[in-house]
Amino acid sequence: MKKYFRRQLMSIENLIKDTVNTVGETTYLAPDIPNKKMDNALKAFGTAINPKYVIAITDSTLFKSAREGIIYTGEAIYINELLKKPRKILFKDIVGVEKNYFEVTKKIGPPTKKNEVMIELINNDIKVRVSSVTSPYGTLDEIVLTGLNEDAFGDLIQKIIEEIKTNVDATKVTDQHRPLSDMSENTKLNYMKVVINYIYSSENEIDSDKYSQIMSLVAQNSLSLESRSSLRPYIGSTEKKENTTVLLNILKDNCIKEESNFELLKLSLLKDILNLFFKNNESYKWEEDKFILDFKENLNIDSKQVVGIIELLNIDKNIIKNKMNDNQIKKTMTDISAQAVSVGVPLAAIYFSGSVVGVGATGITSGLAALGMGGVIGLSSMATGIGMLAFIGVGTYKGIKKFSAVGESEKNTQRELLLQHIIKNQQLSITFMIEDINEVTKDLISEVGRTSLNQQKLARYAEMMRVMTSAAKKTSNKRESAEKEQISIAIPKYLNIERLNELTSSATNQEIEKHILSCYEKEDINSIDKNREENSKERIILKENLSKSNLEQLKAEFNNIQYDTVSGATKAALKNSAKNILGHFSQE
Question: What is the tens place of the pLDDT at every residue in 387-402?
Answer without folding.
Answer: 322 223 333 334 434 4
